[in-house]
Amino acid sequence: MTSTAVFTQGEGAAGVADEDTEVLIVGAGPTGLALAVDLTRRGVRCLVAERQETLFPGSRGKGLQPRTLEILDDLGVLPRIHAAGSLYPPMQLWEDGRPGKTWHLAPRGEATEQVPYANGWLIPQARTQEILFARLRELGGDVEFGVAVEELTQDASGVRARLSDSRTVRAAYAVAADGGRSTVRRSLGIPMTGETVDPRPLLVADVELALGAALDREHWHVWEGEGGDGISMCPLPAPGNAFQVLVRYGDENAVPDASADGVVKLVDQRTHLTAEDVVRVQWSSEFQAKAALADRFREGRVFLAGDAAHVHSPVGGQGLNTSVQDAYNLGWKLAAVLREGAPESLLDTYEEERRPIAAGMLGLSTRTHRATVAKGGTMTVQRGREFRQLDLGYQDSPLSVETRTGLAPEALRAGDRAPDGNPGGTRLFDLFRGPHWTLLALGTDCPLPRLDPDTVTTHRAAAYEAYGTGVFLIRPDGYLAWAGETAEGVEAYLTSVTGG
């Protein structure tokens, strides 16, 4: 999107457009692609406009957290994600040209019936995007590359966009997924409140090493430099001998050289490797660690998602994950309004639910970054369960209705993530998978309402430890929406939320 983009409200949006769609998505990063996949599988027409000629080529957001893996399972791409990635290797510190101590940045978890994906997954961002793009095309969708949105107008019934190829598009809604420097957000006049987490610059690059280079692929290698000038090299699960290089500068006035020659020089100077060991620099970028949160996630019929709504320090791997989960939250709600007659007010819950989550993840990333700096920059600060995003939920959301009383403090409640399991021999994530709600009756013979099977999948089984006994309504995005000892009230709840 160009810097001359214009946003106006209340006039011009209803003019004749060259084509119509239901949702205009600006940006084909992980956020835009995940949203497009979710909407397309729900039968919602969307146009994805990406100003670049190709998908992003680098490894930048290289870690997928367990909750994001569950989402990708639902979207039908997890086998490909698993095939293209790996568990994170242990860290290894180099001293005087020799490998030294090793440690795990995050303790390894054991998969359980309730948490089938217990560990973060290492996969280059570019590969994640390629997989989501392939899934989108399988579903009949596509991305329009080399197309920027140059002007947006909106009125009470829709959004009109002028594209850089001179076309105009009319949509019911638009979603800005165009990154931390989002021109859509700026055009909307939505401020971001934030801070510089660390004034010292960083540089990240993907390099291909010679096969004979003296650096194994079983560790994430770290070299501590003098005065805070550090460097790390993480092996990337890709063909060849690819590594992500992360360079830390001790001087906040340093000027990183992100050219290919500059990256090669850094590897030569700060590690035991030589310039000849670097076969190719595939991608590189300089940046500064910042944290920022948009003051609001919606302006009329335009929504902010992903980095357009929140910008994270890279420490902790929360940015891409929080972004994909924005898309997953927004997708089913847009589809419910556009396809099922749900009230427009359902869309208000997107900001109500996602903005507090984003704020919490920003705080976590910022604290972890500063704790890492305080320890000299070596990545020794452990990433615990809070980084996996499995415990995040929406208990305070107006969509979360808990009718049971006397629950134990640790009990599953409305608003929590719905655990996996196998009650009655049927895997719950298999039941949840797809664009529908799920009604579980566990350990009870109480009568259940007759619900549209195209909208709600119903399943009875014995009481199950992770849930207990009762009736549980699971949202399309895998969170517990409504819970009761009987089904009384669940049909009214569905009607109020979906309009059906």
Automatic annotation (TrEMBL):
Keyword vocabulary terms for this entry: FAD, Flavoprotein, Monooxygenase, Oxidoreductase
Residue stretches making up the FAD-binding domain: 20-362
Annotated GO MF terms: monooxygenase activity
Cofactor or coenzyme needed: FAD
Domain of life: Bacteria
Pfam families hit by this protein: FAD_binding_3, Rng_hyd_C
Flavoprotein keyword on record: yes
PANTHER family: BINDING MONOOXYGENASE, PUTATIVE (JCVI)-RELATED (PTHR43004:SF19), TRK SYSTEM POTASSIUM UPTAKE PROTEIN (PTHR43004)
Record's protein name: Pentachlorophenol monooxygenase
